[in-house]
Write the structure tokens for this entry.
Amino acid sequence: MQKKYITPVFRNALNKIGVPEETELHFEAPKNPDHGDFSCNVAMRSAKAMKKPPRAIAEEIIAALDYDAKLIENVSIAGPGFINIKFTDGFYAEVLKTMDALGDQLGRSNLGEGRKVNVEYISCNPTGLLHLGHGRNASIGDTVSNLYEWTGWDVTREYYFNNAGNQMNNLAKSVYARYMEALGNADFPFPEDGYRGEYIKQIAAEIKEEFGDKYKSGTEDDITFFRKAGEKWCFREIKKTLTRMNIEQDVFFNEDSLYTDGKIDAIIQDFKKLDLAYEKDEALWLKLSEMGLEEDRVIVKSSGEPTYRLPDMAYHREKFELGYDLMVELFGADHIATVPDVQAGIKALGYDTNKVRTLIHQFVTLSENGEQVKMSKRTGKNYTLDDLLDEVGPDVVRFFFLMRSVNTHLEFDLGLAREQSDKNPVFYLQYAHARICSMIAKAEDLEIKVNDNADFTLLNHKAEISLIKYIMNFGEAVKSSSTKCEPQVLTDFLREAAAAFHVFYHECRIISADSEELRDARLKLASIARIMMKNGLVILGITTPEHM
RNA sequence: GCGCCUGUAGCUCAAUUGGAUAGAGUGUUGGAUUCCGAUUCCAAAGGCUGGGGGUUCGAUUCCCUUCAGGCGCGCCA
């Protein structure tokens, strides 16, 4: 809203002194508060076009500015030619009034204008349990979805459920082998690429418990049974874990349906029609080398089965056909190689791949006291997401996975995460919220209610103005976090905002303020800050305790 | 060998997309609070942004090169 006021003021001045209309006019909040509330580098940008030194242009601009002295305190030149703007306290009183009027909607915007976005995340194959990388994927995906919702998009949360292909046969054979072991065949051969996790033994044990040796002969029907049983068990566990993290998705897209609905065949025919596929060595190849990539790849194996590329492309096509304006997909770094192939394929089919936004997150390492942790001390096995949830709880898990930017390696400090104190950033945020709640409760005990008509012009303490600025910028932070698909932008912002509240709380008496009017204004300010903290935590998918 | 990602304070990470004196947290040292929650606040110390070149008013950011780590490079997904 500040920009809305100053942009035309500046543009008028620029026109007056003859700066070209196309010169970019951009304001930013300087890191250093001594540089004012807003800073503009237009004088430096136009130095070339004007053929004058930046500082001289800045002087001309300032002389030509026509602004309201009730809102802007002063405008000055600094450094190589920055123009710094300082607002009055009265300006911030107005801002706070506007923010207050938003109520619970504080932080929401209509950036997306109701457009449809599909966010695909987790999409873990039902062949095992979720591990730490999936936890990061789940946390980011879910919060990115929240961010889109808060910025006015129509969001569909989707899980691509892949229960076709080799991996499932592998699962079936692994379970079968463990089942035979459980029946007393100690040296029953285990498949070479089989899944060696302990959970396979558990599945086998449960089958033995329920059905005895009914499936011991291992016929094709038996293997099918093991495949289905394994899938069902794994998927149940996955969903259980996600529920613990408070994650619920709208659509579970079944890869199998692409085969039964003929989508795979259709896409093969289309590639053939476009003369982009050819047969060699009894397999079908896609001419990726004609689409700007290194080499051609197989899309149908000589066995007649498609490779992963084909269903992946068909899946994207389905999403395009559903009319999404934007498709976000989130993968771990190990999937990075598949992206260009699939994108090239759907582009060749005539779809606009600019609508697909692929996010890649790097790996997670777990550490404690500077040492890398691979195994859970509790179970002695590989660390699963459930183990982590058991140890530190869902709030900490989600926050830790969100507090680093997506495309960097993440070190999860188990010692810090376990810490239920000020060292742990999650508690720092939640405490700010809880502190406001208990303070308002205390005020109510004294029969002091939050006064909706409080006089904000009384708020001119440095700490008060600082907090108001955070409330004012909250919506921008949500927008920025959303458009960048970087939850970390929001976690950082909220930490700073919480700090601003704590400073305010420390320096400004609220309930025992000097006057009732000041008390009311501060109490109201705190209550608006509470909404900001609450909404922020909600977007991150973290609980908002009123007591701790 | 090739492609992608990363390298910033002792440690874990930021830096508004090319801006001002590179900032936070943690750790270390020292302080504050008779009163709304001490899970709080304030201060100090800590840096050749891996190294070397280049582009320009200005580079952690862009380009080249080199070193180090991670992830990929299948008719597996």
Remarks:
- Residues 220-244 of chain A form the longest helix (25 residues).
- Chain A has 19 helices and 15 strands.
